[in-house]
């Protein structure tokens, strides 16, 4: 359970979403669409939280793409603001760096 991630989902539900430039680059590189990330948000599981990240609090979540393959997504809220929800990055996790469930770093 994560109050912060619940807040992110609430903001997304209100339509206050921003994809960072880096996020667009990573989505494109791994052939993930912003739409599938947003549509899959309610099935996401919190992996790590970064409440003191300099640009604002963030959370790393694990979810699935449309094909059922795992993706990691970092969502944040800009420091000093209470919206929008920013899709910071999304990528396909490297199995050599993560456990079999993609929940813990090796």
What labels would you give this structure?
106 residues; alpha+beta; 25% helix
Walkthrough of the structure:
By secondary structure, the protein is α+β, with helices and mostly antiparallel strands. The chain has one domain (3-91). It has 3 helices and 5 strands, in the order αβααββββ. A 5-stranded mixed beta sheet has the order 1-5-4-3-2. Strand 4 (70-76) and strand 5 (85-91) form a beta hairpin. The longest helix is centred in the first third of the chain and has 11 residues, at 3-13. The two termini are 23 Å apart.
Biggest beta sheet summary:
5 strands, mixed
Low-confidence stretches: none
Straight-line N-to-C gap: 23 Å
What is the N-to-C order of secondary-structure elements (H for helix, E for strand)?
A: HEHHEEEE
Structural class: alpha+beta
What is the overall shape?
A: globular
| Domain unit count | 1
Gyration radius (Cα, Å) is: 13 Å
The fraction of residues assigned to DSSP E strands is 25-35%
Main-sheet strand order equals 1-5-4-3-2
Average pLDDT reading: 95
The number of helical runs is: 3
Please count the beta strands (DSSP E, at least 2 residues each).
5
Q: What proportion of the residues is helical, as a percent range?
A: 10-25%
């Amino acid at each position: 359970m994560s109050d912060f991630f619940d807040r992110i989902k609430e903001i997304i539900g209100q339509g206050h979403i921003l994809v960072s430039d880096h996020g667009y680059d990573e989505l494109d590189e791994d052939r993930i669409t912003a739409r599938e990330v947003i549509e899959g948000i309610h099935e996401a599981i919190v992996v790590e939280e970064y409440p003191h990240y300099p640009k604002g609090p963030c959370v790393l979540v694990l979810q699935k793409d449309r094909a059922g393959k795992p993706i990691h997504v970092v969502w944040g809220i800009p420091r000093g603001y209470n919206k929008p929800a920013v899709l910071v990055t999304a990528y396909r996790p490297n199995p050599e760096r993560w456990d079999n469930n993609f929940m813990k770093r090796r």
